[in-house]
Amino acid sequence: MYVSLKDVAERAGVSFQTASKVLNGNSAVVSAATRERILDAARELGYVPNALARGLVRRDSLTVGILADDFSDVALSRFVVAAQQAIEREGHAALVTTTGPGRQEPLRTLQEHRVSGVLVIAPSLEGDVGIGEYLRGPLPAVTLNHIPGGGVPAVGSDHRQTGVLAAEHLLALGHRAIGTITGPTGRRVVVSRLDGFRATLAASGVELPGHRIHPTGWEARDAAEATHHLLDADPSITAVFVHNDNMAFGVLSALRTRGIPVPARLSIVGCDDAPLAEFAAPPLTTVRVPFEATGARAAALLLARIRGEPTDRKNLLPVELVVRESTAPPA
Q: What per-residue string of b and e applies to 78-97 under the rule 16 or more CB within 10 Å gives b?
């Protein structure tokens, strides 16, 4: 049971209105003795202010909505946690609700709780026209993914550059027979990474024919299966760029089953720099995506918009190559 403001007022022997004013920071209306009596009663009862009720009085719910995809995606969960922590450090509450294409319930949940703004971390909504119309409405909004129709400030990484860095690293090692296992082709992040990867190879005169590109799901199991298809189609491949580290773990597993040593026979570059990447066998070379910094930047941008401050429309955070033991010159 929560202790109410009414309970505090009764313990202190004052009216509800007087207790409310004191506990909301307006002590000028009472004597010092009455103020102390109210504060003592609150401490004794363990009273915790009701942020929602206080927000309604101030016409500010003090609650920021986060609209996110399924948390089973580890990468997205890192964005969400970082954003939530940044919002809470500023004294606000974060209401996190999960969504998906065509689902209206999460939006209704945010509306019912009178959130002050919305942060979208939901790549599944990249093609949802309705979410674009909603986010261009009067409520301040920021997104980490593409919004149909634009018009919403965005924070993210330079995904094209992740492909560039992976290609430059493999080319510098001397690889020329290079393949890639991508995420789902409909995702913009996949298109951007593949574009940067392909263009960098082409600039060095290295082709990336269709049989060396294998799109699949984001899971390790999907990538393990894709590895077999890729190598069956072209056994001469000496290096593979994998579009996230979780998938790269599946690739490493598939290569072990085929008796292919990494990196002696085949080099692997991942993407994300997942917490387990440095503990893979061998430790994984990868392109680090700044998940925590991105989530925190997005939260700060949204809070600035809620306060009515001018903000940039697009914020790209840099990515960087982390070289470990899964890459080496071709045999």
A: bbbbbbbebbeeeebbbbbb
Complete edge-to-edge strand list for the sheet that includes strand 93-98: 93-98, 63-68, 117-121, 141-143, 154-157, 314-317
Average pLDDT rounded to a whole number, residues 269-276: 95
Tens digit of each residue's pLDDT (9 = 90 or more) over 249-266:
999 999 999 999 999 999
Of residues 104 and 220, more confidence is placed in 220
User: Using 50, 70 and 90 to split pLDDT, how confident is the model at 137?
Assistant: confident
Q: Give the pLDDT score at 61.
A: 46
Cα separation of 254 and 54, whole Å? 56
Find the mean pLDDT for residues 234-241: 97
pTM of the model as a whole: 0.79
Residue 138 burial (CB count, 10 A): 5
- By 3-state DSSP, what share of the chain in percent is helix, strand and coil, each rounded to 5? 45, 15, 40
| N-to-C CA span, the chain | 68
- In whole angstroms, give the CA distance from residue 262 to residue 184: 25
Angle formed by the axes of helices 291-306 and 74-89, to 10°? 40
The DSSP symbol for 301 reads H
CA 287/CA 64 separation, integer angstroms: 31
Per residue, the 3-state secondary structure of 114-141, as one string, reads CCCEEEEECHHHCCCHHHHHHHCCCCCE
